[in-house]
Design goal:
Number of helices: 17
Number of strands: 16
Strand order of the largest sheet: 8-7-6-12-13-15-14
CATH architecture of the largest domain: 3-Layer(aba) Sandwich
Oligomer: single chain
CATH class of the largest domain: Alpha Beta
Radius of gyration: 24 Å
Distance between the termini: 20 Å
Structural class: alpha/beta
Shape: globular
Helix content: 25-40%
């Protein structure tokens, strides 16, 4: 645990260019005087991190969403970490949408049906600056995530809160809070088999019972009432002359979306990329419908989903064909970890060496440093912020209590790492859904049944967070 009394604040006066406007170190006043944390206000060279600092404060009031960096060049607000990681892999790393001839022109108009948390919208906005994006999503929590992610990345996104189908009506949508990407109008028992097949394909499966338990937890659903409109009705009033790209990902309801598009709207659509579940010949029917509207269509498969019924359709009023090339979307200094690395490099010398091993979580970026009534930096407030996470009794840089010792051994065995610290994240160290199943089983064997219920596992994935859950349930 951090000794609050042993900390002092040191202001960094040397120039950091446009990286930060204000920066202080919190370090130990005795002993090796190592740095315990860095507080900084992002500068003009890191506009995304500046926006993130403000939006994190706003998102914290709702408690539903948090910010995650799945890559050195991407931040995204999400409902749960595991799924945000999946969205990064599918949308950005594997480039599921802008491939096989589908490209965005300058300043395009894009309609994203089934926007989820806005991952695809962020890609479209980054790949084509100036894009105008209409994100259609029926789940209120996910609409909020789309809004925050659009503001985070300074992208022009209009959120349209409804479902899309072949006729207007009121209905119930099944929402899976822990697996939002599979939520939909036609969610059913078959979702369990699809998810289990996907998870089992990610690594060598361990306990089948454990996998079943994880699938059951991920697909614990709730019903949400929503309005269904045809695509034309959903877009009515937005003065859209042309749709450069229509993206559809609506979990088995894609056929209804296609059937609800009128001929006049079809004439305004230039490209379509969509996920199709091949139920009752839907892939062939969708290809025939699109070809009948004047598109050339290419059918592709995600290699991770070959054992499922899911296919990708890429349609253009022009040539299409196999081409996985991804558009450029990366920007410098677009994450907190990238800014932290830049600060280390800019400081140089002994101070950079001191900060080399400081976890990125110990770099705190905010809209302003706390100040007292005289306008001076409030040292006590900074130290209090840094030590909040130590209040539950977990360790950082010191001897581990018994719970942490056993948990660290479990992590080392599952994740094949040499060492574990309080701020390490299970998924950042290579954890997957199946590995989390193994962790739960081994934790129960080490500490007793129900000390780490699967639903609580989704509340936090850092070592200290999981240790705190175990400690709380053992009391």
């Amino acid at each position: 645990m951090i000794d609050i009394a042993s900390l002092e604040v040191e202001k960094i006066d040397r120039g950091l260019g446009g990286l930060v406007e204000d920066c202080v170190l919190v370090r130990h006043a005795t002993g090796d005087r190592r740095v315990a944390g860095v507080f900084a206000v992002p500068g003009e060279d890191a506009p995304a991190v500046r926006r993130a600092a403000a939006l994190c404060e706003e998102a914290a009031t709702g408690g539903e969403l948090s910010l995650f960096e799945p890559d050195d060049d991407l931040m995204i607000f999400h409902r749960n970490r595991r799924e945000a990681d999946f969205i990064f892999r599918e949308v950005f790393r594997d480039n599921e949408y802008l491939r096989n001839g589908v490209r965005l022109p300058d300043r395009p108009t894009v309609v994203d049906v089934g926007a989820n948390i806005g991952g695809a919208a962020v890609l479209f906005g980054k790949a084509a600056p100036g894009a105008r994006i209409f994100a259609v999503e029926p789940v209120p929590h996910l609409c909020r995530a789309v809004e925050l992610n659009a503001r985070l990345h300074d992208i022009d996104v209009v959120v349209i809160p409804c479902a899309v189908g072949d006729a207007p009506r009121r209905t119930q949508i099944t929402y899976y809070p822990k697996n939002t990407a599979m939520s939909g109008l036609l969610a059913d028992a078959a979702d369990r088999d699809v998810l289990k097949t996907y998870l089992a394909g990610q690594e060598e499966a361990g306990s089948d019972a454990g996998l079943d338990a994880m699938v059951a937890e991920l697909l614990a659903g709730e019903s949400i009432e929503c309005a269904v409109q045809t695509l034309g009705q959903a877009l009515d009033g937005h003065a859209i002359d042309r749709i450069d790209l229509l993206k559809i990902d609506v979990e088995k309801a894609e056929w209804q979306v296609l059937r609800g598009i009128g001929d006049e709207l079809w004439r305004r659509i230039d490209q379509v990329v969509m996920e199709v579940h091949d139920i009752d010949g839907r892939v062939a029917a969708s290809v025939a419908l699109l070809e009948g509207k004047g598109f050339t269509v290419f059918v592709d498969r995600n290699q991770d989903l070959l054992a499922t019924d899911m296919h990708g359709l890429y349609a253009r009023r022009g040539p299409v064909g196999p081409d996985p090339a991804a558009p450029p979307w990366r920007r410098p200094l677009s994450t907190r970890r990238a800014l932290a690395a830049a600060i280390r490099a800019e400081l140089g010398g002994e101070l950079a060496a001191e900060l080399a091993d400081l976890p990125v979580e110990r770099f705190r970026f905010g809209t302003a440093l706390p100040r007292d009534a005289r306008g001076e930096i409030d040292t006590a407030a900074l130290i209090a912020l840094l030590t909040e996470e130590a209040a539950d009794g977990t360790a950082e840089g010191g001897p581990l209590p018994e719970i942490e010792k056993k948990l660290a051994a479990i992590w080392r065995g599952i994740l094949k790492v040499d060492d574990v610290s309080a701020s390490d994240d299970f998924f950042a160290l290579g954890g997957t859904s199946l590995k989390s199943v193994r962790m739960v089983l081994e934790v129960h064997e080490a500490f007793g049944e129900d000390v780490l219920p699967p639903d609580q596992l989704f509340e936090g994935s850092r070592f200290d967070e999981i240790a705190a859950i175990i400690r709380g349930n053992m009391r």
